[in-house]
Please model this.
Amino acid sequence: MRQPLPSFILLLTLAACGGPSQDHAKTEEKKEAAATTGSAYIIDTTATSVQWRATHKGGFAPRFGDIKVADGSLNIENGALTGGSFEMNMNTLITDPASVTEKDKKSTELDSHLKSPDFFDVAKHPTAKFVITGVAPYDSTKGKSLLPGATHLISGNLTLKDSTLNITFPAQITVSQNDVTANAKFVIDRTAWGINYKTEGSPENWMISKEVEIGFRLKAVK
Model:
């Protein structure tokens, strides 16, 4: 009879496979953008960052990096976020060298691979975009968020390549007289946007996690 795996091996396996460390974004069809009421706060691109994290080789090779935000704005009315949008420059997508531990791999090679038609095809689709479609207070009685200090549920249309879907996730929003900050971490399924390596059912595609963790820290100033 096969002996059960020791518990520490099971824990290592779950960690390597990228267990549920963040909230899974609810994904729906594209929706109408929220009305841009109130004052526009312009996103400070130098103080704003978008991070991504995924896994390769069945979960045993984590990859992570970031993408620069090109521009955008958030609308504030009576001290509350009402809408907004921002664009990401996909040509700035990079893989953190620290996430590439294989001796025969370089982070710059992975950058080129992700930017190629195999994935994001940035030559044809140089930007990704997020447009807010709804903002609601976060109600902890209706669900538990893995984001510490979540204050709101944000819904928005996320455009990757030539596909747009609506996602909803918890966020931590702070509004002051002169600026607004928004922090979030959530997970999306890349295949919902048609992002597959080779074919959807190919072994090469299976080896890459469908789940991609997205994190952002936005700062917008009046």
Observations:
- Residues 94 and 111 are 5 Å apart (CA to CA).
- The radius of gyration is 19 Å.
- The chain has one domain: 23-221.
